[in-house]
Amino acid sequence: MGQLILHTRQGLYETEATIGEPIVKLAKKQKIPWGHSCERGICAQCRTKVLAGAEFLNDITDAEKLRLRKAERQEGFRLGCQIQIKSPGKVELVHKPY
């Protein structure tokens, strides 16, 4: 487990990160408002900016490579439905839909 800080349009939430669980599912369980629709990397309503802790996250998925432009990925954008914590540490994310 590690510290997870989520910035949403409704405020700031701090919770424990669960290894291997997508951020969208974790937010849903914790009743944290994190916009999403498909949960498969297609709609991008869960577009997320990684502020800190990218080293504790899984690699960018094929779905993210298809949906997000290379420039977005280089700026630290990911899809919340694809992001998973891979090791304990402090991770800070911001929900940034289009």
Q: What does it look like?
A:
The protein has 98 residues and is α+β, with helices and mostly antiparallel strands. The protein has a single domain, classed as Beta-grasp domain (Ubiquitin-like (UB roll)), CATH 3.10.20.30. Helix content is 19%, strand content 29%. It has 3 helices and 5 strands. It has helices at residues 23-30, 62-67, 70-74, and strands at residues 2-8, 11-17, 47-52, 77-79, 91-95. The chain has a 5-stranded mixed beta sheet. The longest helix has 8 residues, at 23-30. It is globular, with a radius of gyration of 12 Å. The protein starts with a strand and ends with a strand. The mean pLDDT is 95. InterPro entries: 2Fe-2S_ferredoxin-like_sf, 2Fe-2S_ferredoxin-type, 2Fe2S_fd_BS, Beta-grasp_dom_sf. Residues 14-85 form the 2Fe-2S ferredoxin-type domain.
